[in-house]
């Protein structure tokens, strides 16, 4: 298949207002995006996962929020 080549022009200049708006998205959720940047993987049984999920639903929070709270209580930051 031979046809005309369509050139892609130069990249448009960045819109400072758009860039600011995009960067604000990273601050949504009270800074949780930056605060919770490390991922932890934990293997649990399907039954335990179900119990955790139901408990989180009953409390009106996500599983991640509830488990972060449990971990913070269990492992508080050292005060010196």
What spatial form do the alpha-carbon principal axes imply? elongated
Q: What is the helix fraction of residues, given as a range?
A: 40-55%
Q: Report the C-alpha radius of gyration, rounded.
A: 23 Å
Order of helices and strands: HHHH
Strand portion, in percent? under 5%
The biggest sheet amounts to: none
Helix segment tally: 4
What's the end-to-end separation, in Å? 72 Å
Strands, total number: 0
Could you report the average pLDDT, rounded to the nearest whole number?
82
Helix/strand-derived class?
Answer: mainly alpha
List descriptors.
mainly alpha; elongated
Structural notes for this entry:
- The protein has helices spanning 16-24, 32-35, 46-59, 63-74.
- The mean pLDDT is 82.
- The longest helix has 14 residues, at 46-59.
- It is mainly alpha-helical.
- It has a domain at 42-80.
Summarize the structure.
Helix content is 49%, strand content 0%. It has 80 residues and is an all-alpha fold.
Task: Spell out the blueprint of helices and strands.
Layout (H helix, E strand, L loop, with lengths): L15 H9 L7 H4 L10 H14 L3 H12 L6
